[in-house]
Amino acid sequence: YELLALVRGDSLSRRCRDAAAFLSTYLVSVLGTPCWLAEAAGGAAQMPEVHILGQVVGASEFPQTRLLCRWRVVADTSHWDLVTGENEGQTHVVDKEEEEFAAWSHPIDVHYSCSSIEGWPQLAVEVWQQDEHGRNEISGYGSVRVPTAPGVHHVDVMTWRPEGSFVERLSAAMLGGHPQLKDTDIVTESVDRVELSTETRGVVHVELQLLVKGFDVKAVEFAGLDGAAGAGDSDGAGAGGAC
Fold first, then answer.
1. Dihedral of CA 193/195/201/203: which sign?
2. What's the chain look like in SS3?
3. CATH entry 2.60.40.150 includes domain 47-234
4. How many CB atoms lie within 10 A of CB 235?
5. Would you call 165 exposed, middle or buried from its count of C-beta atoms within 10 A (0-12, 13-18, 19+)?
6. Per the record, GO CC terms (predicted)?
7. What is the pLDDT of residues 51-106, one digit of tens each?
8. Are 127 and 200 in contact (CB under 8 A)?
9. 39-48 burial string, b = 16+ CB within 10 Å, else e?
10. pTM value > 0.85
């Protein structure tokens, strides 16, 4: 009766709209949002997604025997939002003894949504050496751009560490405690490292699998989607594909 009374009068069309809005709100509150309406709303708000799976396999060419690796996925937060997963972590300590390779097999599982491909994610690593007393000392920093081609990629991250002054190197040799970075953000910013004196360290081996979704709506095409092999090898210089 209230709805019938509402549509009476001169402004029939406006009141009909008001009645429809009232009825729709009431039905949603009682029965929930219809599936077709939820799907339409989700499709309108859908953003391209990137799912990064893989593992920090291990490291080689480091002279120390007890090693651990801290890693983080760095993306431009103005365009990239973390949906699920952890974008940083740390491996266990490996005592490789006389072996050349330190095996970690530490999993990586990160899911992003993005509004632009600008600021594509990078993987930054820090390798630390541990002595018999449990004290950690930096052994190397490194970073690599996450490959842009969907598929499986085997990536080698070349590492380095600050060389330090003569006094700092002498102190490190006598007492330990090698110079380390105060701001680790420069690991992913190559421009900031131009005047930094460094020494080459070992290699961190990473296996990454890249899954992408929704980029076709933005007219973005990736290498490796047209039947070509989506896998590839990348080094510390950058990605295994382009978009």
1. positive
2. CHHHHHCCCCCHHHHHHHHHHHHHHHHHHHHCCCHHHHHHHHHHHCCCEEEEEEEEEEEECCCCCEEEEEEEEECCCCCEEEEEECCEEECCCEECCCCCEEEEEEEEEEEEEECCCCCCCEEEEEEEEECCCCCEEEEEEEEEECCCCCEEEEEEEEEEEECCCHHHHHHHHHHCCCCCCCCHHHHCCHHHHCCCCEEEEEEEEEEEEEEEECHHHHCCCCCCCCCCCCCEEECCCCCCCCC
3. yes
4. 13
5. exposed
6. MKS complex
7. 999 999 999 999 888 899 999 999 999 999 999 999 999 999 998 776 789 999 99
8. no
9. eeeeeeeebb
10. no
Domain ranges of the chain: 2-44, 47-234
> What is the rounded distance in angstroms from the CA atom of residue 54 to the CA atom of residue 59?
15
